[in-house]
Amino acid sequence: MGLGSTAKKLQQVVDVADDLYAKINDLKSDLAAMRDTIEETNSRVKSVEEELADQRELLKEIAVAEGIEVEQVDTEQTDSQLPNSEGTDSDPADNAQ
Q1: 3-state DSSP assignment of residue 78
Q2: Segments in 67-91 forming alpha helices (H)
Q3: Quick one: three-class SS letters along 8-68?
């Protein structure tokens, strides 16, 4: 193997290494963007969960003021979400025809 052939192979290795380095840097920036998106999403979910908890408390207070037993409504809601006897879920949109 001559010196020219070795230099050519070495240049190919360098070219491949440069390509891999560029791809790794792209992946790093993609990963950083994904982490930012995840953090934003987690923040939004936390905010929505807190708002939902506040709304639940408000609804319970309204129910108590109206004389509705909240635990009974919770139980009825849970029972209505169970699959029907045929083993398929009941979809309210199907009943609206």
Answers
A1: helix
A2: 70-80
A3: HHHHHHHHHHHHHHHHHHHHHHHHHHHHHHHHHHHHHHHHHHHHHHHHHHHHHHHHHHHCC
Whole-structure pTM value: 0.54
Residues in the chain: 97
pLDDT digits (tens, 9 = 90+) for 55-82: 999 999 999 999 888 777 666 766 776 6
Locate 89 and state its tokens. Answer: 């879920």
Q: CB burial class (10 A; 0-12, 13-18, 19+) of residue 70?
A: middle
What span, in angstroms and rounded, lies between the C-alpha atoms of 48 and 52? Answer: 6
